[in-house]
Amino acid sequence: MGKVFVIGIGPGGEDYMTPAAREGIMSSDVIIGYKTYIDLIRPILGDKRVIDSGMKREIERCSLAIDLAEEGHTVALVSSGDPGIYGMAGAVLEVKGEKNSPIEIEVIPGVTAVSAAAAVLGAPLMHDFAVISLSDLLTDWDVIKKRLQLGAEGDFVIALYNPKSKGRVTQIEEARDIMLQHRKKETPVGIVRNAKRRGEEVIITTLGEMLNHSIDMLTMVIIGNSNSFIQDGKIITPRGYHL
Ligand code: SAH
């Protein structure tokens, strides 16, 4: 009986992959993942069997990983960032239950995009924050809007995953409008594209101005709370120390 590792490879830069993730990949003989992620780790894959597939085939990928493990293979299912955060960990565990499979599944965490982006921006997450995905492929937009509303009302720092894609452009505008109902237009906003990997770009702006900058699926948007401020090109959300 083989095993499935569900591995978070971090934001993409090799330095940000944990030794445990590397170890999991090294000890696997089959590597499965979305092509972009496979390409990020290609240099360490040697001549391992690699199965890459398009984004929409998550469930098939999980099912294949379990079948191969049942045949005796050690399989690495790779996700970017952390596999437990909008990644593959949940799906593979659900598919295991569905198939009634006895195989062992080990989840190896990774540096998730929000940590990587926050580090680039300074210290925007120093107080309570909410992470919200703007993708309405698997979640109703009404549910997402409600979470945006309550997060804004609760004065959480808000981090947006999947902020905008080619076919999904209005959600970020609505999200910004919801935030503006509760926060000043001067509220600091950080936009980080390709955090901690090749092609990193960072913009520090405000809630009022954020839509004047380019935002896409490789981008993380972090909206400060009512106390966040900008200092020397970094965003800081005070923890509450009396300095
Ligand atoms: N499991 C991943 C998240 C997958 S959802 C993780 O833990 O990071 C995909 C979204 O994550 C992207 O649309 C983008 O919003 C964000 N993202 C992933 N990597 C990123 C990076 N290096 N820089 C900025 N945003 C990133």
TrEMBL record:
The record's section on Gene3D superfamilies has: Cobalt-precorrin-4 Transmethylase, Domain 1, Methyltransferase, Cobalt-precorrin-4 Transmethylase, Domain 2
| Molecular function via GO | methyltransferase activity
Asked if Transmembrane is a keyword of the record, the answer is no
Q: Name one GO biological process term.
A: methylation
Which InterPro entries does UniProt cross-reference here? 4pyrrol_Mease (IPR000878), 4pyrrol_Methylase_sf (IPR035996), 4pyrrole_Mease_sub1 (IPR014777), 4pyrrole_Mease_sub2 (IPR014776), Cbl_synth_CobJ/CibH_dom (IPR006363), Precorrin_MeTrfase (IPR051810)
Q: Can you give the residue ranges of the Tetrapyrrole methylase domain?
A: 3-210
In which pathway is this protein known to take part? Cofactor biosynthesis; adenosylcobalamin biosynthesis
Keywords in alphabetical order: Cobalamin biosynthesis, Methyltransferase, S-adenosyl-L-methionine, Transferase
In terms of superkingdom, the source organism counts as Bacteria
Q: Which NCBIfam families match?
A: cobJ_cbiH
Protein's UniProt name: Cobalt-precorrin 3 C17-methyltransferase
Species of origin reads Natronincola ferrireducens
